[in-house]
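Title: [Solved] Protein-arginine kinase 3D structure

Original question kept below for reference.
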Amino acid sequence: MSIERFINQSISSWMNADGPQADIILTSRIRLARNLKDYLFPTIFTKEEADKVLKQVESVIPLLNLHPLKDAELLKMEELQPLQKQVLVEKHLISPSLADQSITGACLLSQNEEISIMINEEDHIRIQCILSGLQLQAALDLANAVDDQLEQHLDYAFNEVRGYLTSCPTNVGTGLRASVMLHLPGLVMTQQMRQLIPSINQLGLVVRGIYGEGSEALGNIFQISNQITLGKSEQDIIIDLNDVVQQIVNQERAAREAIIKTSGVQLEDKIYRSLGVLMNSRIIETKEAAQCLSDVRLGIDIGYIKNISRNILNELMILTQPGFLQLYAGGGLRPFERDVRRATMIRERLQMENNN
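Solution (posted by the thread starter after getting help):
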């Protein structure tokens, strides 16, 4: 398979970097946690109950007439190869927890991959919507539309006082987890990020790495999400997160301007050195690739680099992950072989950009 065809088949719509404030904000994601009434939560249910939940949700799928779910595909974890599940995790379409549910888990995935309905993960149902740029309200509206259709046919576990009941107490209430993924090289370079994270945590939000809880902030990419759902409305959660994110965006823009003003030549040198590494390396590890991609993306955003699309970071931060590299190679690769394949993938993608 050619690199161009592989990329065209592999990218999700959110990777197009065409959303609002996409120079800093990569994605907005909404996740709604729901459970079915009269069933034990997935953390303690039996395989028999898990099978019943899956069959009940599966029976509802043909009744969903929401346009984005037209031609959606149900992926059962037991029918997928480990590499296929790893790729879905790397694309943020399913969680690592669902990938481990090899017998009872499933995912209903829309064609444009903006909607993912995970079944038998930590909760019976987790509706996820992911859009490019800062579009929290649009993502929430889409998630609620999916939720409304499911609720017409499924009896949710709901309490008049506590709201939606979930496996984890932190999700009780709205069951809403809203998150934004940001590229923040300016705040990292000026060492403001270390001071900013505790301040964000004090506001009831949490800062994580690119793949959520427990993951590292590779390539200066951070996820910021709400921690509290009980006692707050969906709109309150969205407004609070949106306000904080906008302040961070403003600080990132100010940090970039300050670096250009005080260290413009050094910054330009750093950016073009990273571009040279990406264009010429024959071996490159994940961390180095992520950092170089971050530098190049910054160079594109501030106008130093004009002949490479901004989408490059969004695409390559996914396509250079271990699962994708092995998928492109057609089989398993040892760590060293992945580093070689990663360098090849990046060079070919940049060459494709030049050809276009």
